# Entry
Amino acid sequence: MPVEQYRSLVLAGVRPAEPVRTLLADAHGCALAAQITAPRDLPPFPSSAMDGFALRSADVAGASHRTPARLRLAGEVRMGVAPPDPVPPGGAVAVPTGGMLPDGADTVVPVELARIEGGSVVVEAPSAPGRNVRPAGEDLRRGEVLAPAGRRLEAADLGALAAGGYAAVRVHPRPRVAILSTGNELVPPGAEPASGQIHESNSYLLRALVQDAGGCPFYAGHVPDDPDTLVDALTAAAASADMVVCSGGVSAGPDDPVKRAFGGSDAIRFFQVALQPGRPQAFGSWCGKPFFGLPGNPMAALAGFQLFVGPALDLASGLPPGPVYRQAVSEGRMEASADCVRLVPVRLIRRGPVLAAAAGGTRRSNQLARLAAADALMEVPAGRDIFPDEPCRVIPLRTDNA
# Structure
């Protein structure tokens, strides 16, 4: 099955989580379920942009070094308190940065450009209307969009919503993703592997990828190559998760546990995708939750996540599937496979405005340590080599290259 066809099949089987009302402090990273508008002007009142003196611009229109304007000091604005009186003609009111402008004032003279002599404020230059004034509604007017539906709420969004007075919002919650790994050969990091065993690494890889994609991962355990044990583990994981991702056990081997457990089931289907690495894939629903079966080889698991699970996580989060690829230019020749898309680890090099992709890392799907040296995976289309200086598509592997 072509890669794009399989991705479409997967995305058709994923739905966003139902919106919930959550405290603003807990909404970071969640997608907003509905548009939010400003309930009032932001800022709600005109304020000073400087420490200085609020006054009427007409009173200093002719001020100069030779003929300074002398204004009566008529009071002081305090933060958080509305000025009790308007600024009188011929008067000036001391005001701090962010302090509310008194009625009648239309300009602020900074303290550096004025001096107090006795009970007067001396100003030696004109100050135009609106100078050093933050008008009401300068940021947003009442009814304007404060945050659009579908926005993933980041730090600035939370600050803007708080400034608008919102203590809670309706969001699509970040999906909880259960991670399982399979294989009799696996032992946890920290344990000493016996002959023929290796350290389990895919769960760490996948948990980090889920976090980067905005989900909430949790490790549901390591399952030996036993189909009954896998079914029990998967059922328990699905009870606490919105999505389940399992690595290993989806190939054609006689002992592959996912195929042995679900090979005759309509709930989970097995596919051969035109992708190298990452040909064997499994997808379906278990206990009403989307299930992804990824290959056990680390690079194949990584490729399957980036191409299929990541976009599905976007959908489950209430977002449109984000872009998988970035445009680049190949530094060298990359040989194609006759019948499938090849993914080649590359290093990304910035050459002025151009992002260049040079061969790097490893071509073997089990070499995770060498894969970690790569910045991206270059897509080599089936049956067509990519030549030096030719445009190409890459899948970034590092957040600073995304």
Notes: The first helix runs from residue 3 to 12.
